[in-house]
Specification:
This protein is globular. It has six helices and four strands, in the order H-H-E-H-E-H-E-H-E-H. The protein is α+β, with helices and mostly antiparallel strands. The chain has a four-stranded antiparallel sheet, sandwiched between helices.
Length: about 170
């Protein structure tokens, strides 16, 4: 499968089988995140693996969008490691870096036969507290991960993309 075929085939999975994710497949997904480009290569990303148990229960109390996945990756960045642009006061690369890492992991998951769903609809401050994360870490996404349930289908807007002519402008 070419990259464009993989990108076109992947969709947000919102229903999962209880089948555990094999460690080698998880390792491949995490390696894709490790290899993702970051500003100045500072690599501020932080990825927390949440498996079934007490921590998953605390997460589910704060966010209902884990869709029964057997594994969730909480993605964020270390505010002490992200690049700060001195020419733009207040700018931090951390959120962008974490988004690139999340995207790499989503695509690698699909390549491994796993589904995922980028979850941004959460109170990340509450999730942060529930997970007991360090103060210097800012969460940016949750990534449920696992095998798609037999009835999983793409969302109704999945196949809708703006034409290139609307997206791309030549200057």
């Amino acid at each position: 499968m070419t990259f464009l075929e993989l990108a076109a085939a992947r969709y947000s999975v919102r229903s999962y089988k209880a089948t555990p994710v094999e460690e080698e497949k998880l390792a491949a997904v995490l390696e894709a995140g490790r290899l993702a480009p970051t500003a100045v290569n500072y690599q501020p990303q932080k990825v927390y693996i949440i498996r079934p148990g007490e921590v998953m229960q605390r997460l589910n109390e704060q966010c209902r969008f884990t869709f029964g996945a057997p594994l969730v990756l909480a993605v964020g960045y270390d505010k002490d490691r992200d690049w700060k642009n001195k020419r733009m006061p207040g700018y931090s690369s951390g959120e962008t870096d974490a988004a690139i890492v999340t995207t790499h992991m989503m695509l690698a998951a699909w390549e491994q036969g796993l589904g995922s769903c980028w979850v941004g609809a959460a109170d990340f401050d509450a999730v942060h507290a529930a997970l007991g994360l360090p103060e210097n870490v800012r969460l940016t996404a949750l990534l449920p991960l696992g095998y798609a349930a037999d009835d999983a289908v793409p969302g109704p807007l999945h196949a809708q993309s703006r034409p290139l002519e609307e997206m791309v402008c030549e200057l």
